[in-house]
Amino acid sequence: MTRDAQHSESMPTASSSAAAGRSPHATQPLVLLKDVNKHFGPLHVLQNINLEVTKGEVVVVIGPSGSGKSTLCRAINRLETIDDGDILIDGRKLPAEGKELANLRADVGMVFQSFNLFAHKSILENVTLGPLKVKKMKNGEAKELAMSLLKRVGVANQADKLPAQLSGGQQQRVAIARALAMKPKVMLFDEPTSALDPEMINEVLDTMVQLAKEGMTMIVVTHEMGFARKAADRVIFMADGQIVEQAAPEEFFTNPKSDRAKDFLGKILNH
Ligand SMILES: Nc1ncnc2c1ncn2[C@@H]1O[C@H](COP(=O)(O)OP(=O)(O)OP(=O)(O)O)[C@@H](O)[C@H]1O
Ligand SMILES: [Mg+2]
């Protein structure tokens, strides 16, 4: 699908895309988790998680440390196995391994807290690598795509440098471009700004807000409430491996229902 087609299909406003998820006529969710459970030894890190994310929807996941947010992201990208339940991406169940898994992983872009760029490859090579190796794209085409994505995230002029020559904020934007180069259907972000110096946080959040506006389906673990207010259709609050509550951002931040959420918001708002 061309970007433009994707835009026009998924450009509805935040509220209408969230409403689409509740409509009986809505198309199947892009990401679907059904009764997902995961243990690490005795620790029940994901407890009966049910979650539907509609195409174009932006979901922010927040919650205390250790509540299972990263495990949830990693499970959706199959970096982590689950014990039982189902995870479907665009109606397809996650395959266990092999080529099919590689293809499906390409549908799910992921950006981590640390940028994980290849240190000895140029910025351009970091972005072309996936399209060349996994998508078998031609050299020229991959370069063109990479340059357009680097331009989009505002670092095209850094293309020939090595990652260490860039600021943290620039590296994280390259990581976003690299994930986008695989033309994912959904982007997962796990605390993408928490390792950044404060003055670099906004440049990364701005890139993400832009992506959301363009209709990208996103699941974002972040405590940046400004981002949640600006870009999220829905906030999901996790605690102890469970989704404790979920609501539109304004509703959640001004009127949290559970004591856990009230307590958590009290802590992050006051510090
Ligand atoms: N590979 C692992 N082996 C054992 N325990 C793990 C593993 N990964 C995570 N855990 C535990 O699972 C729980 C959930 O971890 P997870 O990283 O998903 O939490 P989180 O909500 O992302 O926390 P944070 O806000 O600190 O990033 C924690 O108690 C953690 O210690
Ligand atoms: Mg985490």
UniProtKB/TrEMBL annotation:
Classification via Gene3D superfamilies = P-loop containing nucleotide triphosphate hydrolases (3.40.50.300)
**Principal subcellular localisation of the protein:** membrane
Indicate how the chain sits in the lipid bilayer. Peripheral membrane protein
Q: What's its top-level EC category? A: translocase
Q: Where in this chain does the record put each ABC transporter domain?
A: 31-265
Q: State if Flavoprotein is listed as a keyword.
A: no
- InterPro entries referenced in this protein's UniProt entry, alphabetically: AAA+_ATPase, ABC_ATPase_HisP-typ, ABC_transporter-like_ATP-bd, ABC_transporter-like_CS, MetN_ABC_transporter-like, P-loop_NTPase
Task: Print the keywords alphabetically.
Answer: Amino-acid transport, ATP-binding, Cell membrane, Membrane, Nucleotide-binding, Transport
Q: Where is this region: Disordered?
A: 1-23
Q: Enumerate the subcellular locations listed in this protein's record, separating them with semicolons.
A: Cell membrane
Q: Which domain of life is it from?
A: Bacteria
- For bias type Polar residues, the affected ranges are 8-18
Query: What Gene Ontology molecular-function terms does this entry list?
Result: ATP binding; ATP hydrolysis activity; ATPase-coupled polar amino acid-transporter activity
An example GO CC term for this entry is: plasma membrane
Query: What residue range is the signal peptide?
Result: none
Q: What is its EC number?
A: 7.4.2.1
Listed CDD domains? ABC_HisP_GlnQ
Task: Report which reactions are catalysed by this protein.
Answer: a polar amino acid(out) + ATP + H2O = a polar amino acid(in) + ADP + phosphate + H(+)
SUPFAM superfamilies in the record: P-loop containing nucleoside triphosphate hydrolases
Report the PANTHER family cross-referenced here. Answer: AMINO ACID IMPORT ATP-BINDING PROTEIN, GLUTAMATE_ASPARTATE IMPORT ATP-BINDING PROTEIN GLTL
For this chain, the family text in UniProt reads: Belongs to the ABC transporter superfamily.
Protein name (database record) = ABC-type polar-amino-acid transporter
Q: Which organism is it from?
A: Crystallibacter crystallopoietes
